[in-house]
Design brief:
It is elongated and about 80 Å long. It has two domains: 216 residues, Rossmann fold; 83 residues, Tyrosyl-Transfer RNA Synthetase. Helix content is 54%, strand content 8%. It is mostly helical and 333 residues long. The longest helix is centred in the last third of the chain and has 29 residues. Helix 8 crosses helix 9. A three-stranded parallel β-sheet has the order 1-2-3. The mean pLDDT is 92.
């Protein structure tokens, strides 16, 4: 395994769905085979938008870690931990806050977008404005070389790089490497109504849904609205929402068969969705079985989390000591 380190995390805001599985977790599974990966539950970050109702965050955090384990993240290959258990994140965040210009935070495009999108929440808080500084601390305290991001997250990572550069320049040190983005193509995963799959839209197929629920949701998916009858020819590649899921679960040969039969009006939408439901259920069945196995072994989950927290803490403690020595000199505690 490479000595290069990867850092990524998720906010515990509710159950994971197929969009998370194909958009993030499958990439994490590949990365843990080639890098030293640190994956964390970002519960402090969840507070930036959920500060009015924080009591649900611990249960969501536990659920998030369980779901990571069920999809195959391996605590022997990756360090899985809870952000708030590693207090060094907060201390490094404080040090970075002292050197980060407010103008850097105010021009953060995501800050403006979320203020606009989440009008129902009061996000005019110090914590929300400064969350990119905490994010920089999350990344840099593990001296991450690579950070998996989408194109829309590149400004965040560039701010982390700027903070690292500024720290290294001010204190004439090279404590922090400049993390680089790991860009990956994120597949389009539609919700059952055609919009992007999202908890907030109520259109998601969750990893914890039971078999009956998964089948029911897929059978209710929007297909080709210009094909009201089975006898009408369809155009699945261009007009069928469900076909975006078919691309993820059917082999190229199976996709070609669906396209040909649909265009020839030989395959009805319901029959097609039943085949899709079968594929999705079969892919989720190992996850459901793994979940049962984890929950049947008392104390196993707690052992895994404690071990991950301790591995993260040891690394974070060393980095923080180096950062404080750069600021204050040797022997400072």
């Amino acid at each position: 395994m490479s000595e290069k380190r990867v850092l990524s995390g998720m906010r515990p805001t509710g159950p994971l769905h197929l969009g998370h599985l194909h958009g993030v977790l499958k990439n994490w599974l590949k990365l843990q085979e080639d890098y030293r990966c640190f994956y964390f539950v970002a519960d402090w970050h969840a507070l930036t938008t959920e500060y009015e109702n924080p009591k649900k965050i611990p249960s969501f955090s536990r659920e998030l870690l369980l779901e990571w384990l069920t999809v195959g993240l391996d605590p022997e290959k990756s360090v899985l931990f809870i952000q708030s258990a590693i207090k060094e994140h907060a201390e490094l965040n404080l040090l970075f806050a002292m050197i980060t210009p407010v103008s850097w935070l105010e021009r953060n495009p995501t800050y403006k977008d979320m203020i606009r999108e989440l009008k129902q929440k009061d996000l005019a808080t110090y914590g929300f404005l400064g969350y990119p500084v905490l994010q920089a601390a999350d990344i840099l305290i593990y001296k991450a070389h690579k950070v998996p991001v989408g194109v829309d997250q590149l400004p965040h990572l560039e701010l982390t790089r700027e903070i690292a550069r500024r720290f290294n320049y001010l204190y004439r040190t090279e404590v922090f490497p400049l993390p680089e983005p790991l860009l990956s193509e994120v597949p389009k995963v539609p919700g059952i109504d055609g919009r992007k799959m999202s908890k907030s839209f109520g259109n998601a197929i969750f990893l914890t849904d039971d078999e009956e629920t998964v089948r029911r949701k897929i059978l209710s998916m929007v297909t080709d609205t210009e094909r009201p009858r089975k006898s009408d020819p369809g155009d699945p590649e261009n007009r069928c929402v469900a076909f975006n899921l078919i691309r993820l679960y059917f082999s190229p040969e199976e996709q070609a068969e669906v396209i040909e039969a649909c265009k020839a009006a030989q395959l009805g939408c319901r029959d097609c969705k039943q085949k899709l439901a079968e594929k999705v259920v079969e892919s989720l069945r190992p996850l459901w079985q793994k979940r049962e196995e984890l929950e049947s072994r008392p104390g196993l989950f707690e052992e895994i989390v404690a071990a991950g927290n301790e591995k993260a803490r040891r690394f974070a403690r060393q980095t923080l000591a180096e950062a404080k020595e750069a600021l204050f000199g040797a022997g400072w505690y």
